[in-house]
Amino acid sequence: MDITLALLKPHVVRNVYAFQQIKQIIHQNFTVLHSKEVHITKQLSEHFYAEHKGKFFYNRLVTFMGSGPCHAFILQSKDSIAKWRELMGPTKVYKAVYSHPDCIRGLYGLSDTRNACHGSDSEESVAREISIIFPELDKNRLSAVDS
Ligand code: ATP
Ligand code: MG
Description:
globular, alpha+beta
């Protein structure tokens, strides 16, 4: 099972054009197994981003993630983790704009925090993040329900 978790952050979910364009990229590159709007409370966000606790941007990040609805996807493809991270581009938007202008963060990121999207970085992160964002799913029984 080659899946990853993608999250579109609040500012792109609010922007109808950006949201549609990113969904198009997703559907061109992956099978969407599950997709839903998700309200990430500060508590959920703190848990999700626990690895960054103590960093200078942590409070800014968890506050931002709770500032409006996000959209979460479970994506399936060959090499899905690396593929989605490549489509997202570099974490830092100012770098993305210059080095990868066509990547999602280059096109729709606003700042290093408001960088449009999230993608799991390992199989362990996929399992952990799906259990946080899609607690209702049985991870052993993920199946194609949406495309
Ligand atoms: P993500 O985990 O969201 O897919 P990433 O793996 O590319 O992104 P991480 O280092 O895990 O980057 O950072 C998690 C998130 O924290 C980033 O997506 C960004 O929103 C925020 N962030 C990271 N570095 C900075 C920074 N230097 N300044 C502000 N925000 C940052
Ligand atoms: Mg990360």
